[in-house]
Specification:
Two copies of one chain form a homodimer.
Chain A: E1 3-7, H1 11-23, E2 28-32, H2 36-44, E3 50-51, E4 62-65, H3 69-82, E5 88-91, H4 97-102, E6 112-117, E7 138-142, H5 149-162, E8 165-169, H6 171-199, H7 212-218, H8 225-234, H9 236-258, H10 262-272, H11 275-279
Parallel strand pairs in A: 1-2, 1-4, 2-3, 4-5, 5-6, 7-8
Antiparallel strand pairs in A: 6-7
Helix pairs in contact in A: 6-9
Chain lengths: 283, 283
């Protein structure tokens, strides 16, 4: 796969481009983006080699669609309209059911592979792209059986070159579970940031009191609203369910505090402590 | 200050001991702990030089009280009973009003300085003690005017040697603000961990889907219940207030999701994004 088209040259698309370029000296990476300054930045940073447009996609061996999930469901059919039969198209979005549904009846469905690389940082744009972002990270692949076998093989080789391990899952299960282990964390972090900023808005010195624990829990509140709003919209029902359960657990904790039941609070924390073991191995 | 007594040889007390020993070759560090295996570990790891008991405190130049805050209010009066007039006693707890009240009328009040080093990790015990833990961290000092001037000077020299910067605050203000920038983060993290573990208890593979974002938001759920239960108990009213506000913000976010008001959700996240700037400088 020598002709690579990255649609959406941001953190994820840009980081894939960087690794492909260092793994394959024959690869030429083209960038497509509605944001011209991102394309210019990507060129300057050698994240891409050339700008391109949808008219060029017929030349592509690989197309990486790395744009917000609301845009992805609109653009993916156009991408599949524009490619040749040899092209592999992958997306990298944080919701999988809507994108799979959007092209389920497209005549080029077998050229598409739905993926979700569990990798990233709280930063965005081509300047956030880094080498090795995907090393030892999980890539979740959905509906693998709907992709041509030969293109599956190419995709797996690509992910292996990026250093990723693979998990297969159906789109509904992906969207349900990812709400718990990713989407809820983002809301929890944004609302924690909001709560503290509201309270302390007139006392900026207070943030001198914040330590690495606070920083860790609000890190995700730096994330891009343009990326995350459509994720919450597309995964609305699952996210509302996780929020309900989270809010209920917080209310129960508060009730224990109000009734001075600190023995039970101790037990609550102790029974959650084994998250240590569960998380063993997460970078 | 050559004779140092650490009461509670854990993460904080042990890390203070390590730094004092490398800064001052004449220092001899004695450990006092109700947990004998912690004392043995601390000896083996050279965190302390000798075991000691309260009867020895009359020899002390410096006593560091680094035990859970419920124990601190009980032990501090006994420590002040046991020391000589030249000793400086500091505590390092995450609540300051109860400990200050506990000794406000003690005849040795002027030998005590209430401090809260904003430093730590999610680990505990002497094995968690590390060199340099306090470098560039903030130390909050309460009621500085109630400590003998000469001992204030010694304390400031110690904190300067540890690499800390100083903020002065009254105990009530400390406890109110620290509820927002520390205690709430811990509850948020514990309840997030609980929510996900409850949901996914039969599907441990799901944690393969968890990325560094999830890890970051639940890191504090590894913290010690024995340390945190008494903190929540002592700072009960402030913590309940922060929980109320946090829960209300989460409910409001959920209501926006339910009414499909994603424009407002975008704005919510955007207006919290400047936590980036606020946190600049936090390690």
């Amino acid at each position: 796969m020598n002709k690579i088209y990255i649609i959406g040259v941001g953190l994820i698309g840009g980081s894939i481009a960087l690794d492909i370029k260092s793994n394959n000296k024959h690869a030429k990476v083209f960038g497509i983006d509605t944001n011209d300054s991102h394309l210019d930045d990507a060129l300057k940073l050698n994240v891409i080699d050339e700008k391109a447009s949808y008219g060029d996609l017929k030349e592509a061996d690989l197309v990486v669609l790395s744009i917000p999930v609301d845009k992805a469901v609109l653009e993916l059919p156009k991408v599949l309209d524009a490619i040749s039969d040899r092209a592999l198209v992958i997306d990298v979005g944080s919701t999988k059911d809507p994108v799979c549904k959007a092209i389920e009846n497209h005549k080029m469905r077998r050229n598409f592979l739905a993926t979700h690389p569990i990798a990233g940082t709280e930063f965005s744009g081509p300047k956030a792209a880094i080498h090795g972002l995907f090393q030892k990270k999980t890539n979740i692949i959905c509906e693998v059986e709907k992709t041509t076998f030969k293109l599956q093989e190419k995709a797996l080789q690509l992910f292996s070159d990026l250093g990723m391990r693979i998990r297969y899952m159906n789109p509904e299960a992906h969207d349900k579970h990812i709400a718990y282990v990713s989407h809820l964390s983002h809301i929890s972090s944004f609302m924690l940031g909001k709560t503290v900023i509201e309270k302390e808005k007139n006392e900026r010195d207070i943030f001198d009191m914040a330590g690495s624990g606070f920083e860790s829990t609000v890190r995700l509140a730096k994330s891009s609203p343009a990326m995350w709003t459509p994720i919450f919209k597309q995964n609305r029902e699952n996210v509302i369910e996780t929020l309900d359960e989270y809010i209920n657990n917080l209310k129960q904790f508060k009730a224990l505090m109000e009734s001075n039941d600190f023995d039970e609070i101790y037990k609550e924390m102790q029974s959650t402590n084994h998250i240590k073991d569960i998380l063993n191995g997460i970078a």
